[in-house]
Every structure is written in structure tokens, then in C-alpha cells.
Amino acid sequence: MGRWMKPEVYPLLAAMTFVASMCVFQLTRNLLGNPDVNKTRRSMPVWDNREEGEKYVEHGLRKFLRTRPPEIMPTINHFFSEDK
Q: What stretches of 1-82 show up as alpha helix (H) in DSSP?
């Protein structure tokens, strides 16, 4: 990279890239899929479409995470929870 880029900066750069990509994902999802933002439905103040709401809430990331165990760092959890 350059002289200012030291190896100690890589973890911070990776974390910031991940956070920025999550922000872009959420912003894009809200702009393209949110029923409140879509211009074609602004003429109707009340929109009673349950299927569309469920499709918006049950997106692919949520379906994927539902099958995963609710652990952030499983190896560390198992290391500290084992009896010695």
C-alpha cells in the first residue's frame, strides 16, 4: 500500500470495511424493498398486504442466521464452558 499503511492497521481496516458493507446492505435493502419507500404505493396511505410485509421481514440473511447456533465465538465459548 503506502508508507502510512502498517500491518497493525489491517484488523481495523477489516472491521471498518465490514461495518460499511453492512450499512450499504441495509440502506440498499430499505431503498429497494421497503414498502414505505416505494413510490408506486405512496398514493395509498394504508397498505394491507401481509404477504409483502412477511417477504420484507423474512429476508435471506435472517433465514440463514436462523439455522446457525446463537454463538459469536463458539470455540472460545466451548473452551471456557468445559469442565476441567
A: 10-33, 50-57, 60-66, 74-81
pLDDT digits (tens, 9 = 90+) for 6-28: 888 899 999 999 999 999 999 98
Task: State the Cα–Cα distance between residues 73 and 57, nearest whole angstrom.
Answer: 26
Q: What is the DSSP letter of 49?
A: -
- Are the CB atoms for 77 and 55 separated by under 8 Å? no
Q: Which residues of the chain have pLDDT under 50?
A: none
Global pTM value? 0.44
**Count of other CB atoms within 10 angstroms of residue 64:** 9
CB-side exposure of 71: number of CA atoms within 13 Å?
9
Distance CA(71)–CA(78), nearest Å, equals 10
